Amino acid sequence: MKQFGYLIIALQILLLPALAQQTKKVYLSGTGGDDAVNWQFFCTAGSNAGKWTTIPVPSCWELQGFGKYNYGFAKDSMRGKESGLYKYTFDVPASWKSNTINLVFEGVMTDATVKVNGKSAGVIHQGAFYAFKYDISALLHYGKKNMLEVKVDKHSANESVNAAERRGDYWIFGGIFRPVWLEVLPATHIRNTSINAAADGSFAATVAATPQGDSLVATIYDHNNQVFGSTTGHKTQEGFVVNARFASPVLWNPEAPYRYSVTFSLYKNKQLQHNVTEHVGFRTVELKQRDGIYVNGVKVKMKGVNRHSFRPETGRTLSRRNSIEDVQLIKDMNMNAVRMSHYPPDDHFLDACDSLGLFVMDELAGWHGHYDTPTGTKLLKEMMQHDRNHPSIVMWANGNEGGHNRDLDSLFYALDPQQRPLVHPWELFNGIETQHYREYNYGIGNYNDGPEIVMPTEFLHGQFDGGHGAGLEDYWEKMWHDPLSAGGFLWDFADQGVLRKDLHDSLDTDKQRGADGIVGPHHEKEASFYSIKEIWSPVYIGRREITPGFDGRFTLENRYHYTNLQQCKFNWTLRRLASGQTKSGTAAAPDIAPLQQSALQLNLPADWGTYDVLQLQVWDSHDRELTLHTYPIRRPAQVAADIVSLSGNNTISTSQKDSLLTIAVSDVKLTFNMNSGLLTTVSNTKGDIPFAAGPIIVEGTNNFAKLSRREENGQLILESDFHKKEAYNTIRWTIYPSGWIKLDLHYFPAAYFSNYVGASFNFPETAVTGVTYMGDGPYRVWKNRRKGVQLGVWNKSYNNTETGEYPWVYPEFKGYHANLYWAQFHMKDNSFKVVSATENIFLRLFTPAWKTDQWHNYEPLFPPGDISFLQGISSIGTKTQRNETTGPMGMKNIYYDYEKEPSRALSMTLYFDFSGK
To answer: Does residue 684 have a pLDDT over 70?
Structure first.
């Protein structure tokens, strides 16, 4: 045991020199919002101003109860007046005296004036989203306490910085919002590195170092920490240049994000002075004009989203855990790309993109305004030094929507050894057309019809429930099949709701401005989350109806760029929804190369046709679900036959007063208007059921005429006559001795183009407590957003939430629900059931809050009435586009039949059970 102890001590002594050569990173703050460190703080204006107190660092001071909340569009009377004064005391060991000590800030909003022990650390730093450092070696008291003072101005003294950063469509914060640390380096050290690890195995690096270093070795390790290769550097005036070629590296791509690590070892007189280790990915990005963007020789399409650095409680102050959460959610939607809107992100976010696999477009800040050239040059250099070695970054963006300083374009290439493509979001530049929010059919001789690569850096604006999933299927199919499309980036990832301490901890999205996300402020998943996931699945399953002759085969298309579908897993499940019985199995993954098609074979049991649905689930090699499809086996008429009881011994009694016919059967009493054919009242022994005033034909004419009554086989039938010109819509009510009521409706829409097609009833919203239904769910749908829902039995309690608004409760209760089989409507002390025997009926539940925008593009349309049974529903627009300009699915329903013949009418059969059982 003693010998083992001596061995450990000996190993530690041997390792000490090597450990001493590593860069020491000593945090003065926390590493993120979840472990912040208190500093002394004084705010000069706004809430809690004028007194010394403490504040956690890193943080945005508004989220800690200081200053004033500002959205970028708002006119701010305090602009230029709000500052924060920070103080922090820290120890410096005497043993550090021979080292170089840098004070590093990863991000300060916005102007930072730094003093150490009362002396200036250097020039004021202007620009919020960039890491900067000061060499404070000569300012420190070694072996003693030291005082750090930072004055932070929320708005910059440089107007170009305000134009680029402070006047945008997002929340504006102040403070030291990213970590602060001391970088402790040996006297002879590496300053920074610039790396290009290419797909052909070539490896080049420029290593800036202090002049005392006389030799450099670069050693590359694989993910098992085994040496992949090693080479030496060539001495230059600034440091060293490394050039080598390694055979057959494993390449990085977002589907298989393989990373190596490279350790640069700096020597002086053969003695190791300093080690610096970086993660690298071997990969090459090429822009081929009039063709596409290639990564590792493969033309790629961006399935991307714009992402702000944001959390409601901490603003732009994030942790590594937050970054991993965001990347995981983005990948869960089958996305492969993310745009840094509208500024460079935290280092740990880029690290998560590297390790988990996302293409990244990194962006120099600029929102309709840009930095002046001297300031932009400085900040661009800081961004490049901080970010350029990340393999996930495949493109750069110079500002946004007019915020492009063209004088800086050449610097992107001068500072990037990988020569990644540069774009100007919102304009045609460098052969890439990136215009925002273009209509589906936009362009005459340009855009989709032009010679340039098309890649909108923002499209399908997701304000409230419009955009994102609505219209995406039309856009994506066009993008996927267009050889000059490089995909695009949805706007945007998450609703930006700030937790307002001055408003009793309520969440504020600045009305509609921050409600743009696919997920809510706390990552609540909207319906579009699941639509995007299905539409962007790399395993594309061809449409298939499950008929009695189904042979278990599905057509698959591999929409991966790099992955064979043999690496995926395929599971199937048969379900009986009433009993909950299931039977499951797996299918052999077919050998399908990227961009190829073939078949998947399911070996189903002989009794598969007795189940209600077949579910097909696909997983990738990392056990991430790619897609889930639910196929109906039994149709509504079959399920209705199991539920509806038509026979019985109950007497059907009637009485009539004027035009009102009252019918009693079992425990149910109904009243019909014999002139109009409409149901007017319903009750049972538990009380009234206020389901009435229907069916009203929506966007049509209620011209039911000459309603007659007759008895037939113990049933009571109320039926209207058909007249080609005056009464071409017909209705038939059948009352069965069992107490069930059947409605047969035959009708013609009034217009060639219709927003919705079907019939409505009145039912007060205050009377409903919830609904249980069999159909597609649990989320609502629009005509141009049908993907992402599954056929099943769903329970939904009433809520009045709207997408993108407090309380962010999903799924929403109100709206259109597809593929209705049956629905049980729950009241406080009563209930009733509706069963459809007709396929493809939409259940409309009430009317969501009316929303619009300044252009009246986003206006969700609903027919009169409260509960509807529809055969066509409306689409939805976005903040920037009307519904009909988002593609064919966004157009109105089209129905034309000049000849009003009964055989040509639309028809619908519904059954009602008003017994309350």
So the answer is: yes
> What is the number of residues in the chain?
917
226 CA to centre of own chain: 38
Which own/partner pairs from 548-555 qualify as long-range (CB within 8 Å, at least 24 positions apart)? 548/609, 550/608, 552/601, 552/602, 552/603, 552/604, 553/599, 553/600, 553/601, 553/602, 554/599, 554/600, 554/602, 554/616, 555/597, 555/598, 555/599, 555/600
* Cβ-Cβ contacts under 8 Å for 477 (sequence gap 6 or more): none
- Candidates 565, 633, 632; CA nearest to 599 is 565
pLDDT at 897: 79
As beta bridge partners, residue 428 has 433
Burial 110-132 (b: 16+ CB within 10 A, else e): bbbbbbbeeeebbeebbbbbbbb
Question: 30 in a domain, yes or no?
Answer: yes
Identify the CA nearest to 492 among candidates 300, 293, 310, 292: 310
Closest CA to 781 of 816, 829, 827: 816
Reported as a single tens digit per residue, the pLDDT across 420-447 is: 999 999 999 999 999 999 999 998 788 8
**Structural domain harbouring 652:** 643-749
Tell me, what's the pLDDT at 447?
A: 83
Q: Give the pLDDT of residue 78.
A: 61
Give backbone dihedrals phi and psi of 107, rounded to 5 degrees, phi first: 180, 130
Q: Which of 632, 657, 672 finishes a domain?
A: 632
R_g (Cα) of the chain, nearest Å: 33
Do 178 and 33 share a structural domain? yes
Task: Please state, in angstroms and rounded to a whole number, the distance separating the CA atoms of residues 709 and 290.
Answer: 71
Q: How many domains does the chain have?
A: 4
Q: Are residues 887 and 767 in the same domain?
A: yes
- How, if at all, do strands 337-340 and 302-307 pair? parallel
Count of H-run helices and E-run strands, the chain:
9, 66
Distance from C-alpha of 520 to C-alpha of 513, rounded to nearest angstrom: 13
Q: State how beta strands 842-845 and 815-817 pair.
A: antiparallel
pLDDT score of 664 more than 70: yes
Q: What is the dihedral of CA 881, 883, 884, 887, to 10 degrees?
A: 80
Does the residue 123 lie in any domain?
Answer: yes
Residues 384, 385, 390, 395, Cα dihedral to 10°: 10
Strands 432-433 and 715-721 turn out to be unpaired
| Each residue's pLDDT tens digit, 363-397 | 999 999 999 999 999 999 999 999 999 999 999 99
Q: 632, 666, 685: which is the final residue of a domain? A: 632
Q: Tell me 62's DSSP state.
A: G
Beta strands in 552-704 (DSSP E): 553-558, 569-575, 582-587, 597-601, 613-619, 625-632, 652-657, 660-665, 668-673, 679-684, 687-688, 692-698
pTM of the model: 0.95
Phi, psi (rounded to 5 degrees) for 497: -105, 120
- The C-alpha atoms of residue 466 and residue 785 are separated, in whole angstroms, by 9
Kindly state whether residues 172 and 28 are assigned to the same domain: yes
| Distance of alpha carbon 358 from alpha carbon 307, whole angstroms | 12
pLDDT at res. 553: 97
| Mean pLDDT in residue range 651-673 | 95
Full DSSP string of 417-453: TT---EE-TTSEETTEE--SS--TT--SSSGGGSSSE
- Region 754-770: mean pLDDT is 97
Arithmetic mean of pLDDT, 725-730: 92
Name the residue type at position 66: F
* Residue 41 and residue 128 in one domain: yes
Tell me the per-residue pLDDT of 837-893, one tens digit each, with 9 for 90 and over.
Answer: 999 999 999 999 888 888 889 888 999 999 999 999 999 999 999 999 999 999 999
* Mean pLDDT on 105-120: 98
Residue 834 lies in a domain: yes
Please choose, from the candidates 837, 838, 816, the residue with its C-alpha nearest in 3D space to the C-alpha of residue 893. Answer: 816
**CATH number for the domain including 617?**
2.60.40.10
Residue 861: phi and psi, rounded to 5, are -105, 135
